[in-house]
Structure formats: structure tokens, C-alpha cells
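call fold(seq) -> C-alpha cells
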Amino acid sequence: MAQKTLPLAVALIAALALAGCDRGGDADTHAGLPTAPAGDAMDDPSAPPPMADPAAGAPAEGTGQPSPGGQPAPGTITWEGFGPAEFGADQEAVRMAWGRDLGDARPSEPGGCYYLMPQPAGTDGVGFMIEQDRFVRIDVRDPQVEAPGGGRVGMPTAEIERLYPGMIETSPHKYEEGAHTLRIPAPEGRPGALVFETAPDGDVQQWRVGLPPQVDYVERCG
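ret:
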């Protein structure tokens, strides 16, 4: 009788021990652990970090698109135009190069002169002149924006002369006593010109680059 009871007791103890292991394993494995999404970087410690949002970064080189501060990207205003929009292109090319709102201005008559201006309205740092349905000129009043060759608003005449040696045609300003216009033809015989307007104290107030005759309009579209 004792010999039959002993194996039965051993079997019962083993079964209870196995059941206890199963319950303990479930508790250790699942209790309180968050479920990681599929493909999470935690699955593979060697995986690279997520890519930054490209919309938050600097504009792509050569696109002409403005920086977060609203200025044209460095180097995008050239003797030939603005980024991929060359002088002579249509207004849609300028809008695409800028990549943001340039307003809805239209000429008062077919082929007339008007400006595409960065929005919101009232900002006057940069303007794109359109005449005869073609992009012909860029006007700049923002001291952070660099002209082809390095000139900027706020620079003294002596610094402009240093940057463009032997290239400047100087004449009295048409309207402002004591002020001057410094005209620099595009290098290498290319069409176009860069024009700085100085205040009577000799510092640059504004500049423009584009094609003649429009680049020489003192009154802009007036």
C-alpha cells in the first residue's frame, strides 16, 4: 500500500510545481510593460535616429527659398536673377523660386510694371519687379541681404568702392541732394547691372539688380 502511495504523491507534487512556474512566468513577462510599436528603434539598438523634419531645416541650396527669418537664402540673388528664376522668366518662375506667398498684385494694364512682394503685406525688404510679363529686377532694402559681389544696405561708399574696384559709375541722385547712385555693370559683358543708392552721408540706403532699362528706373514702377 505504501509503495503505491509514494509514486502518486511524487506525481502530485511535480504537477503543482509546474503550474506554479507557469503562473510566475506570465506575471514576470507581461505585468506593467508597455508594448513598443512595430519597427521602434528599441528593437534594434544599432538603428539610426529618425530623420529630422525637412520643413524645419534651412532652404535647399540653389532653390532661392527664404530662410526662417524671411530673407532670401545666401547667394540666391545673382547677376542672372533669383535662384533658378533668371531675369526674363515669367512671374510664375519667381513664385516657384521663392516658395512662399508673394501676393496677388497684377499690372494696371497689359504688360505694365508691378512688384511681387513677400507677404504679409507691409514688408518692404525685398521686391521682384515684373514688366512686359517678365521678371526684370530685384529691389532690396534689408541690410541682411547681400548683393552680388558683397555689397549691403548700410555700407559706406568707401566699402562699396573696395568691393567693386574700377567698376563703379557714380552720378548724383536724381531727387535727393547730396546723395549718389553707384552703378556697376554686370561683369564679363553679361546683360544687367547692380545699382546702389546712397544717402547724403554716403551710406547705402537700398540697392537693386536687374536688366536695363528697368534697373535704372529711379521711380520703380511709378
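The chain has one domain: 61-216.
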